[in-house]
Design goal:
The chain has about 140 residues and is mainly beta. It has one domain (about 35-135): Immunoglobulin-like, CATH 2.60.40. The protein is about 15% helix and about 50% strand. The protein has two helices and eight strands; from the N terminus they run ααββββββββ. It has helices spanning about 1-15, 25-30, and strands at about 35-40, 40-45, 55-65, 70-80, 80-90, 100-110, 115-125, 130-135. The strands form two sheets. Strands 1, 4, 5, 7 and 8 form a five-stranded mixed beta sheet that branches. It has a three-stranded antiparallel beta sheet with strand order 2-3-6, with no helix packed on it. A hairpin with a 2-residue loop joins strand 4 (about 70-80) and strand 5. The longest helix is centred in the first third of the chain and has 14 residues, at about 1-15. It starts with a helix and ends with a strand.
C-alpha cells in the first residue's frame, strides 16, 4: 500500500510541474523571417579579376540543406576592419524533397572605406569561417 501511495504521489507531482520553457534566444537574435535560413558555408575567395574602385568582390561557396531551399541573399556588414557575410536561403514550404545537400556558388561586392588588413567572417548554419586578407 505504501509503494502505491508513493507512485500516485510521484505521478501527481509530475503533473503539477511547471511547463518547460522554450529556448527562444536564437529567435530573438535573428532578425530574419522564419522562412529565411542560413546556409552551410565552405569557403570564400577574393575575385582577383574584379576591378571596382573602393570595392572588393567575394565569391562564396556553400551548400543548401535540400532542394527545397533557394539561395536568396548574402547579408553584408562591415564594422571597422571586419567584413561579415551571411548567406541566406528561402525555404519553399510546399516542396517535398529528399534531404540532400545542394552546392552553390555566389558572389557579393563589398564597399570598403580604406586600404588595409581586414578579416572576413563567413557566417553559416553550422559554422563560421574566418580569413584574413589585405585590401590595397
Amino acid at each position: 500500500m505504501c509503494k502505491q501511495s508513493f507512485v500516485i504521489f510521484f505521478l501527481a507531482l509530475l503533473s503539477c510541474s511547471p511547463p518547460v520553457k522554450k529556448n527562444i534566444a536564437s529567435d530573438i537574435q535573428s532578425k530574419t523571417p522564419s522562412y529565411m535560413q542560413k546556409t552551410y558555408v565552405e569557403s570564400v575567395e577574393i575575385d582577383a579579376n574584379y576591378s571596382g574602385t573602393g570595392e572588393i568582390k567575394f565569391i562564396v561557396y556553400g551548400q543548401l540543406p535540400s532542394p527545397a531551399y533557394k539561395l536568396d541573399i548574402v547579408d553584408v556588414a562591415v564594422e571597422e576592419k571586419n567584413v561579415f557575410l551571411t548567406p541566406y536561403a528561402y525555404y519553399q514550404q510546399k516542396t517535398s524533397t529528399l534531404q540532400v545537400l545542394i552546392p552553390f556558388q555566389t558572389s557579393v561586392i563589398v564597399k570598403l572605406d580604406s586600404p588595409g588588413e581586414y578579416k572576413i567572417h563567413l557566417i553559416g548554419r553550422a559554422s563560421t569561417l574566418q580569413k584574413n586578407f589585405t585590401y590595397n
